[in-house]
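Duplicate of #3305? Posting structure anyway:
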């Protein structure tokens, strides 16, 4: 990215020098001409200079407008807090790298929204895939209060561990919001690098599985449910848990960069280790 900006700067500089030489030549000619002709030449030179300046401004702005392909649909009343959350997320290398991955990627259209309805939570949804099972569009939906609230440790061992403890400072405010944003980026990363056809099949069959599950007395050994689970690669609970824990691993990557020295937050990371071992031991390698 840096090299691209450098090349553009050099290109603009070179364009600036050539018209400068032509302008000085025209100016000398105007000075040597009769008064009426001199005025005409100078007027022509001035208009030409303004036109060149306008083109240069347009050229300089065009790349900036096309670089960020992430669509941010944020109501005015939430823009200030959203900018604070985003700034916090981008304060880490992990956050910047993931943002640029989609900002510069024209193959996946990422949209980010904020709404009151989601409150302290967030979700990644509205997945769209092409015929080859490649992700082409997805939306991250953030609640307007994600800078507070801590979910259950069962599927969220990292986020839950940030809650207040007597022995350690708790993580709240913009850092908590950025951690939840990192969690949602984890969902996008996983979807972008997984088998889209299987992902879609799971989403199609999960409602069917759940309907049979409740209709037949919640018996997971029912032959229909066993067959559906084999087709999906797990039960709905297992699939949902698998997805959330991948996202939690991404949240932890952000936190490790946010507090590289640990310091007073060392007890928080100890709590994360303890909670992961208790609730996600079978997936502990994701959190290494």
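Output from current build:
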């Amino acid at each position: 990215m840096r090299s691209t900006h450098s090349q553009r700067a050099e290109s603009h500089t070179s364009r600036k020098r050539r018209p400068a030489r032509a302008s000085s030549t025209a100016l000398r000619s105007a000075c040597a001409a009769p008064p009426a002709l001199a005025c005409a030449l100078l007027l022509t030179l001035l208009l030409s200079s303004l036109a060149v300046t306008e083109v240069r401004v347009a050229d300089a702005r065009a790349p900036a407008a096309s670089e960020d392909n992430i669509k941010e649909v944020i109501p005015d009343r939430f823009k200030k807090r959203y900018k604070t959350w985003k700034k916090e997320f981008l304060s880490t290398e992990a956050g910047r790298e993931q943002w640029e991955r989609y900002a510069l990627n024209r193959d996946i259209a990422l949209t980010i929204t904020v709404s009151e309805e989601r409150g302290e939570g967030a979700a990644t949804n509205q997945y769209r895939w092409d015929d080859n099972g490649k992700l082409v569009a997805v939306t991250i939906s953030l609640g307007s209060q994600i800078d507070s609230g801590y979910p259950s440790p069962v599927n969220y061992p990292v986020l839950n561990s940030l809650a207040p403890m007597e022995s350690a400072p708790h993580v709240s405010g913009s850092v908590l919001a950025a951690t939840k944003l990192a969690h949602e980026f984890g969902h996008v990363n996983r979807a972008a690098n997984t088998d889209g056809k299987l992902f879609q099949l799971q989403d199609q069959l999960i409602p069917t599985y759940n309907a049979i599950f409740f209709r037949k007395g919640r018996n997971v050994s029912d032959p229909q449910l066993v067959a559906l689970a084999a087709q999906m690669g797990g039960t709905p609970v297992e699939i949902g848990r698998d997805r959330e824990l991948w996202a939690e691993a991404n949240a932890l990557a952000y936190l490790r960069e946010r507090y590289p020295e640990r310091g007073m937050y060392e007890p928080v990371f100890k709590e994360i280790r303890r909670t992961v071992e208790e609730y996600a031991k079978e997936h502990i390698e994701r959190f290494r």
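Confirmed duplicate; merging threads. The mean pLDDT is 82. The chain has ten helices and four strands.
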